[in-house]
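Appendix B, record 7
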Amino acid sequence: MDLEEPIASLAARWSAQARWTVVTGAGVSAASGVPTFRGSTAFDASLSHDQDSSDRRPSAGVAYNREAASGGRLRGATASDPPSSRDQDSSDRRPSAGVAYNREAASGGRLRGTGGLWRNSRPEELATPEAFRRDPQIVWEWYDWRRQLIAAARPNRAHEVLASWSRLQDGFTLITQNVDGLHERAGTRNVIRFHGSIWELRCLESCRGPVRQWDDARVPLPEVPRCPDCGGPARPGVVWFGEPIDPDTLRQSDRALDCDVCLVVGTSSLVYPAAGLAAVARERGAYVVEINPEPGASDVDLVIAGKAEEVLARVESLIH
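Structure tokens (predicted):
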């Protein structure tokens, strides 16, 4: 399929004054060697992207409100309730009787890295609050392996082009489902981390200490990280399966959807609420473009079936 015509059409819409909002997913970082875990039944070292909550539909309690795609606003944990002032994720709740917190596992020895027992599990079996409470060491061994892969990765051409546009357009916003931090490393301005960051940690029990969330870029991690305030186990600062998106993140994303162009890059457009962002933008008058080797969005004006790094590089060459 000839991509030159749709690429030229997208390039013609670029201007420094335009308000562009870009939504990125796993495909943007795939060329950097970051694992996707898409379609995996168990882990394999050859897998190629990240995402804790980007490859699965939400649970019933974290449903995307499709009414919001008809001109409304993005909603939080329920279809009827507005976002609250604090993130009502499961890290704020004590474990239920069936999901007891394994303190012995949390006080275990050093992380075992690539040879850990996490290889016998599926991503959705590890990226949950329940899995962490059962065995924080196994979950952290998985995250430690991922952090090492990401630390060795470098931003690719897709990251670089988007970073350049963010510096040239005052109305540019990037909403990323990726937790790898490669957009920031490329120098992208105005980034909204829809699913959090693998490089941030927070207390599992949400203790009331002064340090609510902190950066930790150590690679590899020597042991299960601890909260600097209460000494309990720390968890990755990401959105796990079954957890809602942070209300402040939803509000920022909602504001960004009042744009001229909404570019959806490298995402399957199957996971809500992120998959509904383009539909909301289009209802508000934005021109929506999808860039993905296997397009999946339905509410778009233009589809470019190609790899993010190749398509964006070509668009950049036409703009400048």
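Remarks on this record: The longest strand covers residues 196-203. Residues 40-71, 77-109 have pLDDT under 50 and may be disordered.
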